[in-house]
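Quick check before the chapter quiz. The format below is the same one you will see on the exam, so make sure you can read both the input and the output lines.
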Amino acid sequence: MWKKPYRPNADVTQSYNDGILTVYSVADIAQPGYKPVEKLTFKVKVPYEERSLGINRFYSAKQNQTNVERVVRIPKSNVAVTNQDIAITEDGEKYRIDLVQKVSDIFPPSFDLTLEAFTQSVTEEESEGST
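Here is the expected output.
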C-alpha cells in the first residue's frame, strides 16, 4: 500500500531539478600587505531550482550598485551556505552569493540564494568533502 511522505504542516513539496550548484568558500592567500588573491575551497554540491527575479529585488540591487543575475532555491544541507561564498553552476558561470533567505513554507526546508554576477579571477582548490 502506498503511503504519502510525511510533510509537517501540509507544506508544499519543492523539486530541485534545474541543475547542480557547487558552493565554495573564499579565502585570501596573499602575503600580508600584497594584493589580495582569492582561493576557493569546496564546500558542498546541491541541486537547485531556478526562481524568478522579482522587480523589487532587481531595483533594490540596482540602488545598491550590484548586478543581481539569478535567484535559486536550494535544499537545506548540513553545511552552512553564507553570503561570503561563491556559487558555480554546472555550465561554469560564477556568482557571488549576495543574500541567503530561509523559505519557511516549503518541504524540505530550503534557502533562496540571490546570485550576483562578478568577473574576477580566483584560484580553485577542489577538495571533495561530504555533501
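If your answer matched, good. The mean pLDDT is 81.
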